[in-house]
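Memo to structure team: turn this sequence into structure tokens by end of day. - J.P.
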Amino acid sequence: MKKWILAAAVVSALGVTSAQAKEWNTVRFGIEGAYPPFSWTEPSGELKGFDVDMANALCQEMQAKCKIVAQDWDGIIPSLLARKYDAIIAAMSITDERKKKVDFTGKYALIPNKFVAKKGTDIVFTKEGLKGVKVGVQRATTHDKYLTDNYGDAVEIVRYGSFDDAYLDLKAGRIATILGDASALEDGLLKKAGGDDFEFIGPSLTDPQWFGEGFGIAVRKQDKDLTKKLDEAIKSLREKGIYQEIASKYFAYDVYGQ
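Reply from structure team:
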């Protein structure tokens, strides 16, 4: 009896009940809120974007109450593991390295990765061509790892907490180019005021060794029942055409891919 009470106390302290683990009547999603068109924060503090709409649609499909928690990218996986929320939907690539810490649903989007620079910028994308070139990336991302693994001893990688800061440095000429998801760079820079001065350059990068299998929803490894529910909900939203309706608000192409 004492052992049962102690176990119950531990579960309660972690903020999870056995009923919640099975039913998931409420699902809390961690979202970055600084990565348009996937997510951004309005001046009012309201979170908007594709990931926000998807989170709400998934909860509706699962007949669960949805709570959305804003979280800086640097701490997004640690905060999941610390139970600040139950799942991450934040344009996170499914990679083997991340799979060591969390489980993923199947993909819910697949975006190519590109470099963007001021028009007329001439960069040769080889180790010799990138020697000493300042390239901006968001810290602790697949883009950061790609540059480090392929050009780390030549390129000067400048890491940022969010792309907003990287855009400011690019416009000011403090860095030569930025590597990121094509859709985020397009929406966050090219489509904004002054974006006509910039363009995509270089190769389109999709190598799964660095960029994974697409964007998935990350879940704690012990919450496999939630991963299954989310997987089923993603498939259901696509079958019903709801996914396509949401995606069409943000993308002019098939964001799901093949």
